[in-house]
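Researcher: Quick test of sequence recovery. Tokens follow.
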């Protein structure tokens, strides 16, 4: 056996210092890792030799990457190149777009634990137009109330419900080049200028370092037009937005979920077909079923996940939740999450601490001012109008996950240390 550490993350400031104190090198790029690993399947030489060769011939390695990705369609080699980004001064709304991408790592500045300043993003769609004044004045009123109630003893995690989705945020992000290319393509096609700018800025930082593994980064018809045409075709339905309805509604699930789980457990523990496993599971007594499932957790520690067999049970929920709550739910990226825009017609979530302090009337007053500004902006640009809405505003989310993921959500979000809003939603699910 031979196992070598081929690479690891290094801070760009450290790399910059090394460049200043060392001779110029062309091989300070993750492309050499991608190129050498791409050759593993057809080149008999040891991997460490392939890496050495790629470092010695960087331009040749780049041509190899481009050929393998573009002509042969093996995009997976781009997954071996990994990047870290500090993302600062972007809106909370923009972070929702950024964190839609599943196979990436994110750590976000917490509005629960940090007191917010008055920094916010003015979207390009509003800047310089008549609506900018209304937009800025509304957010200033939101922020003023935020600071007032904090001074009156309201914790930041509750006070933040009155702050807008335009509030500046920051994020640390780690992802591979394949996912990065997907972000570039999606963001280049996005209708909001801030999102396009984020993608362009990230692209300009990466392209000089790794030009051979970021190939399909341009705006495209699929991302630009598909949802627009779907919306156009559904306009004939002539439906109006209905009231919020229940916060959490189970709308679909695996039939006979216990039997499906038990059959999956039997399948991995025997040599029977799944059909036979399902029949055997159906014959088990309630006590036998319970004992078999309890065995799955007998030796589980706090860091253990349920067995993969739990993934064969699916559940789909319709959830109406606040922006503050969605900020936590969206982190469960293995789930299938499709959300509608924030909609004032769905009402707002007011923290109990604000109501108990007798501040709910003023809170609702700020919400009413916000809704009026939202309506004004919506007439010109519905997407840009989202920026002015608060963390208390709600939207509808369609979320599908398996029992294994629900177990993880429950353990994390129903814990006594979890934020109250996500606790409540998770408990209902």
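Model:
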């Amino acid at each position: 056996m031979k196992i070598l550490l081929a690479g690891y993350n290094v801070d760009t400031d450290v790399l910059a210092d090394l460049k200043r104190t060392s001779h110029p090198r062309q091989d300070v790029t993750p492309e050499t890792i991608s190129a050498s690993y791409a050759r593993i399947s057809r080149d008999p030489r040891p991997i460490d030799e392939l890496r050495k060769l790629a470092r010695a011939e960087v331009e040749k390695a780049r041509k190899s990457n481009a050929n393998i990705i573009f002509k042969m369609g093996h995009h997976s080699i781009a997954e071996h190149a990994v990047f870290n980004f500090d993302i600062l001064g972007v809106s909370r709304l923009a972070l929702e777009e950024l964190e839609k991408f599943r196979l990436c790592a994110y750590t976000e500045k917490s509005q629960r634990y940090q007191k917010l300043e008055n920094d916010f993003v003015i979207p390009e769609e509003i800047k310089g137009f008549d609506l900018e004044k209304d937009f800025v004045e509304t957010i200033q009123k939101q922020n003023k109330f935020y600071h007032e109630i904090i001074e009156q003893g309201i914790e930041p995690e509750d006070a933040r419900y009155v702050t807008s989705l335009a509030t500046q945020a920051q994020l640390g992000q780690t992802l591979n080049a394949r996912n990065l290319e997907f972000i570039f393509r999606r963001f280049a096609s996005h209708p909001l200028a801030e999102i396009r700018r984020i993608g362009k800025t990230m692209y300009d930082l990466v392209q000089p370092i790794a030009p051979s593994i970021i190939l399909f980064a341009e705006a495209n018809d699929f991302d630009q037009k598909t949802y627009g045409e779907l919306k156009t075709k559904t306009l004939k339905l002539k439906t109006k937005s209905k009231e919020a309805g229940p916060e959490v509604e189970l709308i679909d699930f695996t039939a006979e979920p216990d039997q499906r789980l038990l059959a999956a457990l039997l399948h991995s523990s025997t040599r029977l077909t799944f059909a036979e496993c399902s029949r055997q599971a159906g014959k088990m007594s309630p006590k036998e079923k319970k004992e078999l499932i309890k065995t799955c957790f007998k030796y589980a520690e706090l860091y253990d996940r349920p067995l993969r067999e739990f993934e064969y049970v699916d559940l789909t929920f319709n959830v109406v939740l606040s922006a503050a709550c969605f900020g936590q739910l969206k982190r469960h990226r293995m789930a299938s999450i499709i959300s509608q825009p924030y909609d004032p017609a769905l009402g707002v979530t007011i923290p109990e601490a604000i109501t108990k302090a007798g501040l709910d009337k003023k809170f609702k007053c700020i919400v009413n001012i916000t809704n009026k500004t939202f309506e004004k902006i919506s007439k010109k640009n519905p997407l840009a109008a989202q920026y002015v809405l608060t963390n208390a505003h709600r939207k509808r989310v369609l979320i599908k996950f398996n029992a294994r993921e629900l177990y993880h959500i429950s353990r994390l979000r129903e814990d006594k240390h979890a934020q109250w809003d996500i606790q409540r939603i998770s408990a209902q699910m």
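The first strand starts at residue 82 and ends at 91.
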